[in-house]
Structure formats: structure tokens, C-alpha cells
Amino acid sequence: RRHAVALIPGDGIGPEVIDASLEVLEKAASLHGFALDMTRFDWSCDRYLATGRMMPEDGIDQLRPHAAILLGAVGWPARVPDSVSLHGLLLPIRKSFDQFANMRPHRLLPGATGPLKSEAFDILCIRENTEGEYSGAGGRIHVGTPAEVAVETSIFTRRGVERILRFGFEQARRRSGRLASVTKSNAQKYSMVFWDEVTEEVAADYPDVTVSRYHIDAIAARMVMAPETLDVVVASNLFGDILTDLGAAIQGGLGFAPSANINPDRSQPSMFEPVHGSAPDIAGRGIANPVATLWSAALMLDHLGEEAAGRSLLAALSAVTAEGRLRTPDQGGQSRTTDVARAVADRLS
Amino acid sequence: RRHAVALIPGDGIGPEVIDASLEVLEKAASLHGFALDMTRFDWSCDRYLATGRMMPEDGIDQLRPHAAILLGAVGWPARVPDSVSLHGLLLPIRKSFDQFANMRPHRLLPGATGPLKSEAFDILCIRENTEGEYSGAGGRIHVGTPAEVAVETSIFTRRGVERILRFGFEQARRRSGRLASVTKSNAQKYSMVFWDEVTEEVAADYPDVTVSRYHIDAIAARMVMAPETLDVVVASNLFGDILTDLGAAIQGGLGFAPSANINPDRSQPSMFEPVHGSAPDIAGRGIANPVATLWSAALMLDHLGEEAAGRSLLAALSAVTAEGRLRTPDQGGQSRTTDVARAVADRLS
Ligand SMILES: CC(C)[C@H](C(=O)O)[C@@H](O)C(=O)O
Ligand SMILES: CC(C)[C@H](C(=O)O)[C@@H](O)C(=O)O
């Protein structure tokens, strides 16, 4: 078995966490009898400063033949505005390949400690990734005058809302049979009432799944006060964005938060990336936490159909965090990125 | 000195927490040498079911002559849809009196315990209360068909953004001199880039205040991971709504979270209310936590210019929570609403 994987290390600590993952991925592949054909793309803010583009004009076409994309981090605001870097690389990939389901698991790895007293939670957030509040529609008039008005329009389509909910219900069915749908229908009476209605319709096809509806403010509070009461959480682009950073926080920080941008139609590549950004403040020092990227790589192996290898990688990662000897500075330790990755590789079976 | 105060107990536990506050407020007034002329309005879901209106047609005019409004809770979704109850009472008051600054302090009262390991934080959230994501603009087409599209438009005006930021900067100046401005300008390039620009302009008038800019996802995570790094936080209607529920969560739950809807122009009444809702599940049992309402009443006294009485009320409240003997069931105790209120009244000085 061979799988074509595109690597986009990106900016800042991105290349460090991607490089660290490579030996782990290669060892997992050889232990489990498959090959990863990895192609590296230097698309980044550096490339933008040198060429005027984050990626080549045919970048999306270059990625298309791959089964998956593993991405480090994109952006370096002090050098290139986010409006250029994110809109020139990360967001076009998510949209071009219609990676509509952004999946982020939130639980504490063994040995990890979070900011909450509660430690027993296991949440899977599923964020709509292609429309809604981040549609990019809007405008401004009377710019720079006292009369200025800015509008930003959220656009929700039935296709978009229905498919993310169906995706969520499928996940819920495989897990606990419980799904939380997130809206703010008492204050946003068009988009969110629509979301509620579609939820009700889709729910009719999944009588085995119990649905709870929460307002975004209430579920944000719940993630902190009673995270153990949540399982699969489905939310719009903005609400999911917020809840997954909150999820990252309660699982011990961005260093521990993986993510998968999925298009279930396998003719298009899905993308796997840590939730953290490029962290310019620690870039180049070899001390970035590789856990989020290694966990993302495990999600990628699952998606490629290499579930045994994915399980083995997650088990090795958990063994290293459980032992607690190797911790990067963000976790109060003094280990280096490569120390952690090597220890994970050593524990693969 | 006399102050006209409108009481709107509202629904569910609303009347219970308002009634409990009355004896405390009356004692505070008599100790500090002023009078509160309190008028009670029975506007509520009950009234809606009996008359078809949450408040009379001239309700806003009836409220106008008061210096302040103390509100319990509005809404009882099982009996009246939120779209009727909230849009028929709570939201029209906020909008008619242009109560554009929704202020919510988030800190642990002495003796209170929250879900975080961190306990040393003192945040003042200031939420824009009249426009933005809750403007109510939008629509749906092809309703109920596979082609349906729903849009919801956020509208931000320079006047609206500028005044809430100025309000925030004034508060920051009185506190630590630090202000956090919340946006999501990397994904919402009209409304939030506008907000960033206005922040920069207003900041120029406050060279003594240090401004940090956060994206909503990042600051939500920060409120959980490092709340002690935040002081005054200024956010849009939606972002403030989310952050203040999160703030309520970290301060020990909604039972502890007060709020003030302020129009600094004192010719219009401001409104004070606990952040919690009507809690139909425990309504009528006399066990609602009155702390959030008592704290809101203290904010009201401050606003009325009775700062000494406000301080005394907050001190009495803190003494009761610090002692920890009287706790309502939401805090793991067995006390009744009136027990807690009476203890606070007893400690007033
Ligand atoms: C960088 C930003 C555009 C991105 C997003 O909002 O999707 C990030 O916050 C994330 O959560 O992946
Ligand atoms: C009930 C609802 C309309 C209200 C709001 O969003 O303003 C509430 O969530 C609040 O925070 O006061």
C-alpha cells in the first residue's frame, strides 16, 4: 500500500513540528507495511516575500493528486498580514477541496494537565469549515467618516448545514449516541433558526442519536463547568472556531490540540494540522511542542485507512505523555521537539 | 435623596431573587440616608399568556422616568418562545434606552470556588449591547427547499463601535490601564477590520492605556488558561455575550454573575440584572441563588451615585460568601434564597 502525502511545513514552528513528525510517520509506515510518498511544498510567508505569492498559481492542482495533506502552521503577522497569508494558503486549501468538516478531539492525553479541576472529558468538536460567518461577504460605506457603517454577512446554505450535521450524526452514532447542536437562535433569527430547523430534520434520520441544543454562550460555559456532559458537538464556522480553541485550552493548551479538515469524498485530499499557529516567538529554537502535530498525523493515518498504524502512533504518544519525563517548555519541561518525537518513534509497535 | 427604581421581577426565579433583594436594598437605603421609590411591573410570560403582550404598549414610556431598572429574569421557553419573550421585553428595554454598554465583572467572591485551578483574576467585560451581530438583519430564500439559503447580517456603525470603545477606555483608565479589544479580523474582514481601525483611533486619545488585540477564539482560551492576564475586555454584542457567559462560568457559575446595562447619559434609565435566566426547573421553590442579583443591585447603587451604599452591600455579600455557611443548592448547600439575603441585610453597615 502506498499513500501520497503532501507536506506543507509553512511558517515559524511549522517546519520544526513537521520535520519531527517525519521519522515517526516513516517508522509507523514500515512497521505496518505501507509506504508514504511524501512531497514537500515550501509554501509560506518566506515564499511570499520572495515571490509575491504564498503558493504558486497552480498550487491547488499540485495538491490534488495527494491522498492527504499534513500542514504545520501558516502566518507570521509581523512580516505578512494574515489577510495575505491565511487567505493565500490555508483557507484556499480548505475551500478548494471542500474540506467541510473540521474535526477536533478534546481530551487530556494521559499525564497531561489542564486548567480545569475536571479532567474526565472526551469531546469531539465538528466545525463547519466552508461557509457561515466566515463567508467573506460584506462591505463598508462612508469609510473613515463619522457616518461609516460596516456590514458582514453570514451565509448558510441548506447543503452546507445539512452535510455538517449528517457528518456529526454519523460520528455520534459511532461514539456515545449523543450530539450537541450549537446556535444562537434567540438573537440571530435567520441563520440560527434555520440551523435549528435543519438539525430537527436531520435528527429524524438518526432516531438512535439524542440531540441537545445549546446556545453558543451556554455551551462555552458548559465546556468549562461540566465538560464531561458533552460528547459530539456540531457548530458553525465561527462558533466551532471559538469552541475548539476553548477545547484546546481545557486539554492543556494549543500544544496538545490536533485537527482534521475532512472531505469524506476521498477523491479530494483532506488536511491535517495542529490547531496552534506559527508561534514566531519561539520559532527556530527547536522547542516547539510536537504533540499536536503527531496526534494530527495519527488522525491522518486513520483517514488513509491505516487505522492500526494510527492507533499505534496515538498509543506511543500517550505512553510518552503519561511517562511525563519529556516535556517541552510550554509544558514546564526542558525537552526539545526532536526528543519528544524520537521517544514516540521508539515506542511505536 | 430619592431615587426612582423600576422593578421587573419577570419570570421563573426572577421574582424570587428580586423579592429577596428588596429588604437588602431598603436597609442599605435607610442606613445610608436615601430613599428608593420602587415601582413594580408585572411584565412577564404570565402577562403575555393573559394579555398577548409581555409589557403594555406604552411600557417603555412607563419606565422612562426611573433612574434605574432592576430586572430578575425574562423567558420561559416551554410556555412562550424566546423570540416573543426576549424580543417583547428584555431586548426592547436595552435598545429603547440605548443601554449600549453591558458591563459584567468577573471575579471570585471570597469563599466562592470556580472550575479553574486559577483563582486570582479580576476581569471587567464590556459588551456592546445595541448593534453588531444581533442587529436582526437578514432573511431566507427558497425556504424549506434543498436550495434554501439563510443570511444574517452584522451591522457595525462608527458611532456604535466608537462609544463602546471609549466607554471601555474610561474604565481601563480607572482600573489597571490595560484594555483588551476582541475581534476576529483574520476571518471577518469588513466588520472586524473596521473595529480594529476604530480601536486604533480611539486608543490615540488614551496614551495612558495599553491596548492588546485578541481574536475571539484566542481570548476565550486565555480566559480559561490565564484569566489573571486580562483586565478590561471590550467586545462586540456576540463576542461579549460569549465571553461573559465564560466569565460567569469561571467565577463559579451564573448564580454569581451580575450585570449592568448602562447608558452613561443619565436622562435615560440603566438596567441591572443577573446574567442567569429564569431557571424554570427550580422556579417557585425558594432556592434560587440571590448573589448575582444582590451584586447587580450593588452595581445599581453605584450608578445612582450611592457608592458608599454600593460598597457596603458588596462587603456584606462578600462576608456571607466568605463565611460559606449559607449556600444555596447550586453551590452545594441547603440554604434558601431568603436566608442568604437576610444574612446579607444583617451584615450591612
Ligand atoms: C487562522 C484562522 C483563519 C483559523 C480559523 O479561524 O479557521 C484558526 O483560528 C483555526 O481555528 O484554524
Ligand atoms: C437571552 C439573551 C438574548 C441574552 C443576550 O444574548 O443578550 C443573554 O444571553 C444575555 O447574555 O444577557
**CATH homologous superfamily caption of the largest domain in chain A:** Isopropylmalate Dehydrogenase
Please, what is the average pLDDT of chain A?
97
The number of helical runs of chain A is 11
Bound compounds, each kind once, are: 3-isopropylmalic acid
Q: Which percent bin holds the helix content of chain A? A: 40-55%
Number of strands of chain A: 12
Greatest interface and its residue counts?
Answer: A-B, 60 and 60 residues
Total domain modules of chain A: 2
CATH architecture verdict of the largest domain in chain A: 3-Layer(aba) Sandwich
InterPro entries (chains A, B): ICDH/IPMDH, IsoCit/isopropylmalate_DH_CS, IsoPropMal-DH-like_dom, TTC_DH
EC number (chains A, B): 1.1.1.83, 1.1.1.93, 4.1.1.73
Function (chains A, B): Has multiple catalytic activities. Apart from catalyzing the oxidation of (+)-tartrate to oxaloglycolate, also converts meso-tartrate to D-glycerate and catalyzes the oxidative decarboxylation of D-malate to pyruvate.
Catalytic activity (chains A, B): (2R,3R)-tartrate + NAD(+) = 2-hydroxy-3-oxosuccinate + NADH + H(+); (2R,3R)-tartrate + H(+) = (R)-glycerate + CO2; (2R,3S)-tartrate + NAD(+) = 2-hydroxy-3-oxosuccinate + NADH + H(+); tartrate + NAD(+) = 2-hydroxy-3-oxosuccinate + NADH + H(+)
